[in-house]
Amino acid sequence: MSGDTSAILFMVENPSPFKQYEDHEAAIYITIHLLIEDAILQGENPIAMIENYLNVVYNGGTTTGEITDYLIQTGSLQNALWELKEKWSELDTKINENSLMYSSLSKQNVTEIYAQRTLRTYLETLAGYDRE
C-alpha cells in the first residue's frame, strides 16, 4: 500500500501516536462517521456513493451511524483494516514519533491529504486499494 493510500485510509486526528491497534481502529470509525456526516451536509448521498465505488448493494439503515457501521463491515474496508492490524503487529516502537505519525510522507504532504480528504476521496482510494 502506498503512503498516500495509507494516509487517506488510516490517517486520523489524534494529538499523539496510538499505543495499540484497537485505539487506531476506533479513531478510523469516528473519522469515517465524520466524513459521512460532512457528505450529507454537502448534499451528497453516502449510500449511493458506497454502492457505486465499492460495487455493493447497500442493505443497512439510513442514520449516519448505520451507514458507518455498514461501511466498516464491507469486505473492502475489512481487508484494509486487516493490513493495518498486521502492520501494528510488526510495529517497531523504537522509531521516532514523527515516523509513527507521518510514515514516509512529509508533514506538509500529510496535512494537504488530510485537508482534501472527503467521503468521495476516501471511497475512491478504498476502491483502488481493493483492486490492488
Keywords:
single chain, 132 residues, mainly alpha, 8 helices, 70% helix, globular
In terms of per-residue confidence, which ranges show pLDDT below 50 for 5 or more consecutive residues?
A: 95-102
- Determine the strand fraction and express it as a percent band: under 5%
What is the residue-averaged pLDDT? 82
Largest sheet: none
Question: Number of DSSP helices?
Answer: 8
The ordered string of helix (H) and strand (E) elements is HHHHHHHH
Radius of gyration: 15 Å
Helical amount among residues, as a percent range? 55-70%
Count every beta strand, where a strand is a DSSP E run of 2 or more residues: 0
First-residue to last-residue Cα separation? 8 Å
Helix- and strand-based class? mainly alpha
Query: How does the overall form come out from the CA principal axes?
Result: globular
List the helices and strands and how they pair.
Elements: H1 3-10, H2 21-41, H3 46-54, H4 64-73, H5 75-89, H6 97-102, H7 107-116, H8 119-131
Structure description:
The longest helix has 21 residues, at about 20-40. It contains eight helices and no strands. Helix 2 (about 20-40) crosses helix 4, helix 3 (about 45-55) runs parallel beside helix 8 (about 120-130) and helix 5 (about 75-90) packs across helix 8 (about 120-130). Helix content is about 70%, strand content about 0%. It has helices at about 5-10, 20-40, 45-55, 65-75, 75-90, 95-100, 105-115, 120-130. Mean pLDDT is about 80; it is low at about 95-100. The protein is mainly alpha-helical and about 130 residues long.
